[in-house]
Design brief:
It is built from ten helices and 16 strands. The strands form four sheets. A six-stranded mixed beta sheet has the order 6-3-2-10-16-15, with helices on one face. A four-stranded mixed beta sheet has the order 1-9-8-7, with no helix packed on it. Strands 12-13-11-14 form a four-stranded antiparallel beta sheet. A hairpin with a 5-residue loop joins strand 8 and strand 9. The chain is globular. The mean pLDDT is 86.
């Protein structure tokens, strides 16, 4: 199906895309978001299973932190009583997206520019959408791949924004000693995160960065075995254990600029790969980048 739009197309439905969407729609510009997954969140993802919920992506932010970026964003952020673990991270992204038009399971594989704007195509050549303005928010390596044909100079710059991978293991263990065990476990290659409120027995363990890079292509079953062995747990002691690989978990060498924007062809890029004047964690960099790009887009766009 071709989604025709003379307005703004956003590739990705993570935090950067949700912030862009909210800010642009606040300026009365309709947007159309394309996301390859079945739901929103990106690297602020939450896994829901029969045993509970896990924030296996990055933890969410609080409204106070968002207020430092843009008041429009904080106004639409769910209340969490100042606790980023009070709700699933992807619900925060979903709240920012609001009633935006999102096309899920739509993986954009190629970009071309025609007389009326940008064409977004799938890997089989079918056209997913058309837009006069195109904004990319995927992790830097993925945005670079999309830009290689149309803007190789931008693609080359994005590849300089080095990103590290990560392995996380989600463990459900209703054991009286689980809290003591995770508190006293060695501080080696597996680090415990706080569980979501309401899911006290659903633990997420993240591997050490160096170890994750060295074992990036290993079988998830071997990753789980290593984590459980580190904790001294046997498979008979747990209710559930799954592993997830983040090939592009965090950007450790962001670019100096806050975003990319070409007003002539109306294409832009934002995300945690851009530092601008922000040196904080990647989530805040992504939000500041989205705010800067939205401002640049709106500056030269008049809503009829």
């Amino acid at each position: 199906m071709i989604h025709e739009s003379k307005t703004i197309a956003i590739v990705g439905a993570g935090l950067t895309a949700a912030a862009l969407s909210r800010l642009l729609r606040a300026g009365r510009h309709p947007v159309l978001v394309f996301e390859k997954a079945r739901g929103p969140g990106g690297r602020l993802s939450t896994r829901k299973t029969a045993h509970g919920r896990y924030n296996h992506g990055a933890a969410g932010l609080t409204g106070a932190e968002l207020a430092s970026v843009h008041p429009v964003l904080s106004a639409h952020w769910p209340r969490s009583d100042g606790n980023p673990f009070a709700m699933p991270s992807n619900e925060c992204v979903r709240a920012l997206l609001g009633d935006a038009s999102v096309v899920y399971t739509a993986q954009v594989a190629r970009l071309t520019r025609g007389h009326s704007g940008w064409n977004l195509s799938a890997s089989d050549g079918s056209v997913l959408g058309q837009a006069s303005t195109l904004l990319l928010t995927a992790p830097a390596p993925q945005s670079a791949d999309l830009l290689q044909e149309v803007l190789p100079s931008w693609a080359n710059q994005l590849r300089q924004a080095h990103m590290e991978p990560s392995w996380v293991v989600m463990v459900k263990a209703s054991l009286p000693t689980m809290q003591d065990l995770t508190d006293s476990a060695p501080t080696g290659r597996w680090h415990r995160r706080k569980p979501l409120l309401g899911h006290p027995d659903c633990y997420v363990f993240e591997a050490d960065r160096t170890w994750a890079h060295q074992h990036l292509e290993e079988d998830p079953r071997d990753i789980i075995a290593d984590c459980l062995g580190h904790l001294g747990l046997g498979s008979e002691q747990i209710e559930e254990a799954t592993a997830h690989r983040w090939r592009y978990a965090r950007c450790v060498s962001p670019l100096a600029s806050s975003h990319f924007w070409d007003p002539e062809t109306r294409i832009g890029v934002a995300g945690d790969a851009f530092a601008g004047e922000v040196s904080q964690q990647g989530i805040l960099r992504a939000l500041h980048s989205a705010a800067e790009l939205a401002s640049a887009v709106l500056e030269g766009t008049h809503c009829s």
